[in-house]
Amino acid sequence: MSFEQRSIPTEDRISSFPDHIICHILSFLPTKLSAATSILSKRWNPLWLSVLNFHFDDQTFQDFISFRHFVLSAFLSRQMTLPLQSFHLKCSKESSFQLHDINRFVYAAAQRQIQNLNLEMSCTNLQMSSRIILKLPRSIFSCRTLIVLHLKGLKVNDLSHVAVAVDFPFLKTLHMSYILFESIEYFVQLLSGCLILEELQAEYIRVSNIEWLVSQEMFVVREKFRSLPKLIKADITKSPFLLTFLLTLFCKEEAQVLRAEVETRYLNYLKFPNLTYMELILHNHQREKWKMLLETLKSCPKLQNIIIHEGFRSEEEVVDNWMDPAITPECLSTQLRTCLLKGFKCTECELQFAKYIMQNSKVLNTMSIKIASSVDINVKYQLSRKSASWTRASSTCKL
Known about the structure:
F-box-like_dom_sf, FBD, F-box/RNI/FBD-like domain protein, F-box_AtFBL13-like, alpha/beta
């Protein structure tokens, strides 16, 4: 039996694409790989320099000297008049890179009307703020065209060099992780310069003088806060609780999505009239925690989805007594669609809270309870049987 051999097409279809299509394809590659296409032909030689994204990672270079040379060569070879939409700089070899070099790279991007900046710096143990060694580059404050800013592994210990005030007039998204602020005032100064910020994500934020915040001077700092009237989404985790408390002051009016770790004593400060999604990780439980949580729900009349994590508890279990509130939160009567309770220990107050939600949420679709792994299996089985008979205000509610 003979088989007809299929011919393999040899036509270079990619090269037949227009330049702007090829540049778009190259934009998905790290810049080092994008530059490697310049050897394909004379036509391909200059195309990588027209890509609107620069993505540099020093891990792909033998040493930082060759990495620095490549980054600077890329900027020098590119036309100054050609805008640069995105610049991602990842430096992992902390023993080699210098602030002076990072400043030069960021300044070169700022001259090209950069819109998206991602600075990802290394530190040996990211959970130890003492290992964050690189200062926030001064040249970042010349990037006034930024719309998106990602910062990781940096130290903010002096903003006195900023001539008038921090000013990012177009910044809508700010993500910060493993950032060490030498003073809460620098944190306030940075956020206060982002007046149209819509999305804030903060993870592992540290403040050196956090003990100072406990004093009355904390309230003086609060007076310096400028509100963030456009903030829609705030995601604040793995950060000191006092810092979380301060952050809640920034998103009073327009916030629609909130995810935060918070001590229960600060629940009374969570008042968001337009919030539709709230995820809370509760720590250091206080007496009347569930009562305070219901008060929070009263301050969120448009809430549709809520997730509550039972976080860290002190060794002494807080004794609490449940009492149905006199007024049912508006969100339960008209808005709440889903409720998820995680880390459930099956205490009496937890059960009363879950029953209250089901009995008063008229449009609830789903009530989910995830019991902590430490709870005895027999207790879990008994709850499963009892909860099946709980009264539900919504005929469509599934438990």
